[in-house]
Amino acid sequence: MKGKTAFQKIIDGHIKGTLPDRRMVLKLDHVWCHEITTPSAILDAGSRGLDVVFNPNKIKAMIDHINPAKDTLSAIQGKILREWAEKHQVFFLDVGRNGVCHAIIPENGWILPGQIGIMGDSHTCTMGAFGAFCAGVGTTDLEAGLITGLWICPPQKVIRVNFTGALPYNVFSKDLILALINMIGVKGAINAVLEFGGPVIEKLSMDARMTITNMAVEAGATSGMMSTDMTLVKYLWPTIREYYSLPEEALRNFLALNSDLDCEYDEIIEINVSRLEPLITQNYSPEDVVPVSELRGKKINQVFIGSCTNGRLEDLRIAAHIFKRHGNVHEKVRCIIVPATPRIWEEANKEGLLDIFMKAGCLVSNPTCGACLGMSCGVLAPGEVCVATTNRNFHGRMGQDGMVHLTSPATAALSAILGHIGCPTFPMSCDNYCDTTAKRTNVCNVDFTPVDYIELVSRGDITNPPKDFSGRVFYLPQKNIDTDQIIPAKYLTETDKSQLAQHCLENVLSAEEKQDFFSCGILVANENFGSGSSREHAAWALEEVGIRCVIAPSFARIFRENMFNNGLLCIELSKIAIDILLASKPKRLSIDWEKGLIKGVELNTPYNFLFKLTDYEKDLIKNGGSIKTILKIAAALQGEEGL
Fold first, then answer.
1. SS3 call for 196
2. In terms of DSSP H, where are the helices of 139-205?
3. Are 535 and 574 in contact (CB under 8 A)?
4. Taking the C-alpha atoms of 231, 232, 234 and 236 in order, what is their torsion angle to the nearest 10 degrees?
5. Whole-structure pTM over 0.90, yes or no?
6. Reading across the β-sheet that carries 150-153, which strands appear in turn?
7. What is the pLDDT of residues 40-61, one digit of tens each?
8. What are the structural domains of the chain?
């Protein structure tokens, strides 16, 4: 009998059932919440009479994207989350105690090897660095997780990525993950778990490892994962020490969760890093990666060092070393430094790093995600160029018509000094290894009454009638239309879904195209539609416009899930079929979702395209979304231990 991957071992310990289309019903150890995606889940659950949580002790909430609130809408989001957390006795980190969620969670010891967690944020895959399976989900999946403690997960491939060779002195973890994304592309790991390993990974700190798993989603992956070892055990020791007499004992326990030596992977990728150069993105895709030397000399307006990717202490140490040894921020450049958590801010202050930044001419901010997605604290003006340690460089990501170049903290800091993109070619004399550890947050367990799912599922106001998917068609031939393009991040503070329609694809379509777009019910698009964020706002915005069905050759995992979870339809057709539609552009299409048939209704378009939905997807269409379906599953499992 062949061995198992770490992913399969985790699934074996959490699976509560398998649906006919191989989707897995998984029991959750954690559900994490922040103020951008959770308030809509709270409001929707309340409107359905489902204002309950499965277990408040397994839920953590925080404000991190806009910290503190920048306007009335963001203040309302915080208020909704704050009041909900108090009502349900959910542990909540408010302004002053909060930080970037994907740094706060591991720092507080809220993830352990072998666990499963979800959050309404695509970079939740960061937690896979701890030998866990964690993923970003849309707001409806988040809502279902909060209510039932369950997650319906599609089947996953497991792709092993081995980094071998000797890591050059000026190459960092950010360069490693950029190299992989450049190799396999932004849809190279859709519905897959990327398991990172090899001798290079084994030598990295937990800070550096989290940079790599954080960006697994930029290759389309559901999650990134790494094996457990002594580096991980030492990081978590303050959290786990009461359960083990020595770190070596904990390690022996955790090693059993790693992939077996004789396991079979769906694919194995080998990357020798010995000749790897510092890397940077160009244009508007995380897969469009070049050596920094190719962009050397390009003038810049801003440098941003922070985010859930590179806002940890190790990143700040690297940047501070460069400022201390090589000079101050160029007079024509703004440099913004954002420690990811209050603890990181405190440690950086103790080490004198913040003093170095301030003397060099940097602005040091409180912890926030704001600049990364163009919401606050570093938004770009049209035409401006930013070198950033963030994770996405989509068009308009940090500000309308701004350009973002993703790179390591070393390249970013040097570029801030030079006033243009520059490549570190000098040895780093500082010790880049980060020896920080988790600092356990003592959260008191609260008593709670288990939810009666049998009673909830009997309510008659949960199901919406299935939609009519036939109608006029709008054609969008561009590839890789991402969620930032579907609905720009600056509108994510809106909790009234109807207000999203007017901003849908606003930076993609001309005024004339928008007029036509608003009269259509079907969108025919190109490859990898809906890539990027987990934000369900993209699906909501399309529905509010009137788009009930999107047809494309391929979709990003979370976007596809979000559409079906709202009773909307995603249809995958072959590239040949899509090219036929894009070339002939029939004005109307008839769609029979039960038979899986698309017909052209004009006499000159006698199309008959076949597609297939699983029984689970059909159930979501019948119920107008996933909430009724997940409640039925929870009710069926009601008597089982731990639900």
1. strand
2. 139-148, 173-184, 199-202
3. no
4. 160
5. yes
6. 15-18, 24-27, 150-153
7. 999 999 999 999 999 999 999 9
8. 6-272 (3.30.499.10), 279-418 (3.30.499.10), 471-625 (3.20.19.10)
